[in-house]
Amino acid sequence: MKPRVGFICVHNSCRSQMAEALGTLLAADVFESYSAGTHVKPAINADAVRIIRELYGVDMARTQRSKLLGDIPELDIVITMGCNVDCPMLPCKHREDWGLDDPTGQSDEVFVQTARTIEAKVRELARRIEAGEFKKEHSVKCPGI
Known about the structure:
By secondary structure, this protein is α/β, with parallel strands linked by helices. The chain has four helices and six strands.
């Protein structure tokens, strides 16, 4: 069974959605991708939708929606996007923070840079999973994120 990776952010409307889309596109053979937040917005960030569509041909407006933490299954790996807020405890085997600044309200260049950074991190995460860096027997309760 493939591990479940959750990309978590406050509003689940931009970075975490981009990560879910790129995880599904680039690493679906290695892990299942989910995204969620502690709050939701009525729609995914329009600039994020446009940039991901232009760069990768994925239309997040058609394939994804903003979700709360309770809307996704239990996770094996939790990736926080760099929201700098405390979130509830989430059971997982591994947790890490990618420390990404929110590109909302910034230029297309910043959105493209964010998407390319997420792409590289998703590819590296897939490589690490394939290399066996996240073994089930090392399960821990992840601290608040």
